[in-house]
Fold this sequence. Notes:
mainly beta, 6-stranded antiparallel barrel, 2 helices, about 15% helix
Amino acid sequence: MNGRTNVWYVVEKDVENNVVFVSRNYFSVDKRRRVFRAGSLRWFGGSPPRPRRRIRCKVRHGPGFYDCDMNVEGETAVVKLVEDDQGLAAGQYAAFYHESTCLGSGVIFDSWDDGGYPIAAKALDIAKLLRDKKVKLGKPVKIRNMETTTR
């Protein structure tokens, strides 16, 4: 789409259900996230950082870093940022640092809002409810599963 008023942002991906969530409003209270789960973890030292070690996280390609807490359980880690990030989404990379040294990285699987709910799951439930009940809230939105519509 062209023009500033028609800009859309990918605000979440639900890989399991093959759904991409888009919004025209990137900076919105309901899109703030600070907790995410990452997998495909790779550590330069061969093992994750020690518990309670102060680490920083960089998400996407942005210049900013976040102080964070990390709880590694097996092949995944739950990361809690000290500040909100509007753009956390499945499929993005997160890199973990101690001071200026990169400790390793992983792929974001999913993210949560402050209430502890997975963003994609909430949005998908609402979308399914609207589709199943044929509720109309303004212009209709078509939700389709690419697996069933692509040959």
